Amino acid sequence: MTTFYDVPADLLNPALAGKLADVKSINRPEWADFVKTGVHRERPPTQENWWELRCAALIRKIAREGPIGVNALAQAYGGRKDNGAHPNTPAMGSRHIIRTALQQLEDAGFVARKETKTVSSVEGDQKLFSGRIVTSSGQKILDEVAHELRGEAEAAYPGLAKY
Q1: Residue 28, phi then psi, degrees to nearest 5
Q2: Cα–Cα distance between 59 and 13 in angstroms, integer?
Q3: Which letter does DSSP use for residue 109 in this model?
Q4: Cα separation of 36 and 6, whole Å?
Q5: 17-60, pLDDT tens digit by residue?
Q6: Are 160 and 154 spatial neighbours (Cβ–Cβ below 8 Å)?
Q7: How far is CA 131 from the centre of its chain?
Q8: Cβ–Cβ contacts within 10 Å for residue 9, how many?
Q9: Is residue 38 helix, strand or coil?
Q10: 110, 138 in Cβ contact below 8 A?
């Protein structure tokens, strides 16, 4: 069976974004047309389906590296900030975009929080989480899309056939 590891991200993410566009709980917020994806960017994204593409990329990254938190994801989607005459510095991506997309993916059932332990405090018991992981339905949709794209991936990248 083909898994999402067998298909390159440049083929997998657009196809997965097409599947996520059909999911009711994943929709672009009203503010998403005007927001930049990080402080290192000068303009908002110009693609029509950039929200679905970001959600697809998040599912894939969480499946590969999970459990992973919002700050680590923001660092992964960051870039180099232009400081004018001063040296460029690393900048993080927008945590609000990532957090909102993860909340939508949780509502859809593709991603879940991984609980590490419960701590008792003055306000009662509180759960601590180590990050987000992919659920079985998220793994299923990733592998279904990868299986559909296997032939196209082997045609585009001939070296993949031996795997």
Answers
A1: -70, 130
A2: 9
A3: T
A4: 32
A5: 999 999 999 999 999 999 999 999 989 999 999 999 999 999 99
A6: yes
A7: 13
A8: 14
A9: strand
A10: yes
First vs last C-alpha separation in the chain: 11
Determine the Cα–Cα distance for residues 104 and 110; give it in Å rounded to an integer: 9
Helix (H) or strand (E) holding 128: strand 124-134
Q: Which residue has the tokens 């400081």?
A: 83
pLDDT digits (tens, 9 = 90+) for 49-107: 999 999 999 999 999 998 999 999 999 999 999 999 999 999 999 999 999 999 999 99
Q: Name the pTM for this structure.
A: 0.90
Number of domains in the chain: 1
Distance of alpha carbon 101 from alpha carbon 112, whole angstroms: 12
CATH number at residue 43: 1.10.10.10
Residue ranges making up the domain that contains 129: 4-162
Tokens 């110009």 belong to residue: 46
Rounded to whole angstroms, the Cα distance separating 51 from 105 reads 12
Rounded CA separation 29/44 (Å):
14
Residue 15 buriedness (CB in 10 A; 0-12 / 13-18 / 19+): middle
